[in-house]
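Data availability (excerpt). The following record was deposited with the supplementary files.
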Amino acid sequence: MIKYLYPAFILFPISMAATAQGTADTIPAPAVRTLNEVVTVGTRSSGRTRLNTVAPVDVFHLSKIQVLTPQNDLNQILQYISPSFNSNRQSSSDGSEHIDPASIRGLGPDQLLVLINGKRRHTTSLVNNQGTVGNGSVGTDLNAIPAAAIERIEVLRDGASAQYGSDAIAGVINIVLKQNTHQLFAALTGGVTSRGDGGLGQLSLNYGAGLGKQGGYINITGEAYQRGKTTRAQNNNLIIFDQSALNNFFAYDFTDDPAASRKYDDDMLKQKGLKRDDFNFQIGDAQIKNGGVFYNLSLPFGNGKSEFYSFGGYSYRQGEGFGFRRLPSDPTVNVYTIYPDGFQPTTDSRIHDRSIAVGVKHKLGEWQADLSNTLGDNRFDYKVDHTVNASLESASPTSFKAGGHEFLQNTTNLDFSRRFANVAAGLNLAFGAEFRVDDYRIRSGEEASWKNYALVVGNDGTVTNPSGLAGGSQSFTGFSPDNAIHKNRNNTGIYVDGELDITSRWLISAASRLEHYSDFGTALSGKFATRYKISEVFNVRGAISNGFRAPSLHQQYFSYVSTDILPDNTLGQSGFFTNQSAVAKALGIPKLKQETSVNYSLGFTAQAARNFSISVDGYLTQIKNRIVLTGSFGFDANGNPVEAIQKIINPLGASSARFFSNGIDTRTAGIDVVADYNLRSGPHGFNASLGFNYNKNTITGDLHIPAGLKGQEQIFFSPNDSILITEGTPRVKANLSLTYSYKKFSVLLRNVYFGEVSRNSFPFGEVQVHKGKVVTDLSFSYNLQPFTFTVGANNILDVFPDEQVYGNSYFGVFKYASVQMGTLGSFYFARVAVNINH
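Predicted structure:
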């Protein structure tokens, strides 16, 4: 049922000269570009070229890209080649440090559908909730898929709920796995940043073999890499302590007499029995170890009328991220006898990602039938090290198993399609059905990871904490039995999709999809698109569609109490509560309902010359009742505690409470431009590719705030969360790739412009505009069959986002925000690849 994509423009070209043996003697540039390329995956109609489709799609040939690109994981590869795609590595953000949130056109990660070989890919079990882009959403872990297993990626930049499912509001990414046989590919990559950290070691292996006499194959990939942590904390010379309370410290950048101020600081520390190193922070990219295997299998039978197919894989990841440092002088969070110098906790992840799809295709006369089942599961377990449960005092362990979450999805599809050549200039008709089961659970951690042993229950039932000691594992509190939950639901959908060539110049396409959720009722989505050939080299196209997205099980049932920066400028316990909870009912927070959307697009494609093409597409996406996280109830807009709310949430171990809500309506408008130029002259090859995206997100109308919460608009939907949606991703992003090849030599020069973004990093901070920056990649390759040697750099000019203003830096600790290109800086790499045909 979810099977095809509308291919269109290929963003990055390559040039290859064949030897007498049929192998390439020049180095491929980042992708394949063929002006008359026939679209075979996507349109449900055979024979269409990428210039003649009705919707815009970028096609990236990863089997070529990974030879030259400095990036090693799928999120970062797409970040640097797709102008509409955005993904940043996060820092000090719990689970979001280990699974990077990703989006297109600035919409939510959960509004983007991911397919593999045209079949639905499961999402993760992680809810992004630490103020990152995509806050409150659930995405797909693209990095669980080995890049070496992928032949190409198709990014559909258009609303597609009627074609592929309700969560395709922003678009679709379709990952097509390799099918090649009798070929061994291996690559070994090493790299390090200019600061000597973030070291990378990666090994990729891919092998394909033929099966049977009817063209069957099996393609197997193994990939493993280790990425070291980076340190990007503010390197302040000075630490000044608040004389009234040693546990509060402030960093200043003195310009008058820093040497004297530093001596004053050091003398103060010495008097307290401390030293400057006690306050070093580890802030930067998490350490990641990742390994995975993937396969792609096809077995034709019945004299070519039938095919059995299967694909899937397993990924295991270990991550180590760093929380906020606890000072030795704060007895509420530190146990001095265990950590006399204080401590910085680590949040360790154990992530298992599994998937398998099996199916049978069969020809029934003129009809093509496809029956398949796809099962996917993502399990995320937390372990907290170098920490304490302060309420246990000296009896506290320093390591805790903190529980975790898991999401399983099983999808069964039955699809039929047929070409009617005699209807007008040709009609392709497809219809089918899908049955999907979602299953979500949270597992509680060991008792000491979540319990506060210092709480005292009075005779009247009130709960107090006379000692003030914090409970649970510091930095990441374990999931408690109150958080533990196991819920599931099912979804049934039927669809019909048709493409009619009214004439040889005029194509129309229409689709309709009816879906029923066991927990959210029934909805109908539709799409109409058309393309008209004004001439043989110039086409205009447009589309209109509507869609809806039911709240995920995660958004309905996720609850958790964690350590966060509270609105009163202190570290404390912040709670996430379900909309069915007593706390939500007491505050008048309503139950969640579905998001609805309307998408419009209009554009043109032109082949201005034999070796030059361009596409321009404008778009508008309107979303009503968008699901977002509320602000922190328990404090007013000035950060002062609200006693009435504190009385409700304090017994639950929290000082603030957040919820999911259908809080806002949004409008996303923009334009995409993609241009390709390719020139060959003898042994010389030159390729130029430009991708440009302008994207503006705005919040429209009034907040959907319950009547009982009128007057608390800035709490219901905080300015921080508003900025993340409207200005958290670059309004302008552009990619310019230049590739020159000569015989066995090739060079890639790529510039990516990340436009300005705005950020308010902490509740007590201020809105800061981070100016646009250009990041330059440069790499050189030499081919000596069967080996290819590559050296180069990502961000060779060592460009960083603007330094954060003091109010957004958490007292000078966070020098940079995780925006735009992230905080890695220059990264140098070397790669040896071998490609053997036999």
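Summary of structural features: Residues 577 and 737 are 47 Å apart (CA to CA).
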